[in-house]
Amino acid sequence: MLQGRTANSFSYDTPTAELIAERLRVTVPLGVLAMVLTTVLALSLGIYAASRHNQLGDVGVMAMSQVGIAIPSFWFAILLILLFAVKLQWVSAGGFPGWTEDEGGGVLDGLKALVLPAIALALVQAAILARVTRSAVLEVMREDFVRTARAKGLTRRQTLWRHVLRNAMIPVLTIM
Q1: Which pTM does this prediction carry?
Q2: Exposed/middle/buried for 61, CB within 10 Å: 0-12, 13-18, 19+?
C-alpha cells in the first residue's frame, strides 16, 4: 500500500486504486466545500458574538452554537433531506449525478448535490469554531495593546480588524 501497489477489489473485481480515485473525485470537493462553509460561518458568527458581548446577538449566537454542538450531524442531515429534498424538492434526495454531462450531470448539478452534505458536515465544526473565535476575540480585547490602540483614537472597528483579529486567529487556526 505504501508503495502505491494495490490489489483488486473482491466486490468490484477492479484495482482498488481506481476505486479510491473515483471516490476522491467527490470526497475532496465535499471536504473543501464543508471547510469553506465552516470557516465563513464560524468566523462571522464568532466575531459578531464577541463584538456584541453579553447582548442579545451574543446570547443568540452562543445558543445556536450550543444547539449545533448538541445535534448529531447524521440527524441534522436527515432533517435537511426531509426539508430540502422531500418537502421543497430543491435538491435530489440521493445519489451523485456526476461532474460531466457524460456522467448524467454537470458541474452545477454536482455542486448542488454536495450542498446538503457539506452543510451537515460543517454544522458541528462551525458551532465549535464560532465559540472558540468568540472566546479568543474577547480575550484579546482585554489586552493592554487594544486599550492603547483605542486611546490613540482608533475606532472600535479599526481596532478589531487591525489588532484584535490578527492575535485572536492563533487558537482558531490551531483548531481548524
Answers
A1: 0.81
A2: buried
Instruction: Give 129: exposed, middle or buried? Use CB within 10 Å, 0-12, 13-18, 19+.
Output: buried
Distances in whole angstroms, Cα of residue 27 to Cα of each of 61, 89, 118, 125: 30, 24, 10, 17
Chain-wide mean pLDDT for the chain?
88
* CA distance linking residue 162 with residue 3, whole number of Å: 48
Residue 40 Cα to chain centre, angstroms: 7
Contact between 30 and 121 (Cβ < 8 Å): yes
pLDDT range class, residue 3, cuts 50, 70, 90: low
69 near 127, Cβ under 8 Å? Answer: yes
Determine the Cα angle at 83 with ends 99 and 114, to 5°.
Answer: 20
Return the C-alpha cell found at 98: 456526476
